[in-house]
Amino acid sequence: MRIERVTLREIRMPMVMRFETSFGATTDRRIMLVEVHAGGVMGWGECTAGEEPHYSPETIESAWHILRDFLWPEIQGKEFNSARDVWAMFCQTRGHNMAKAALESAIWDAEAKQKGMPLWKLLGGVREEIASGVSIGIQPTVSDLIATVEKELAAGYQRIKIKIKPGQEIKPVEALRKRWPNVRLMVDANSAYTLEDIALLKQLDPYGLMMIEQPLGWDDIYSHAKLQKQIQTPICLDECIHEYGHALAAIELGACKIINMKMGRVGGQLQVRRIHDLCQKNGIPVWCGGMLEAGIGRAQNIALSTLENFTLPGDVAASKRYWAEDIIDPEVEVTPKGTIKVPSGPGIGYQVKLERVERLTVRRENLV
Question: What is the CATH code for 5-116+351-363?
Answer without folding.
Answer: 3.30.390.10
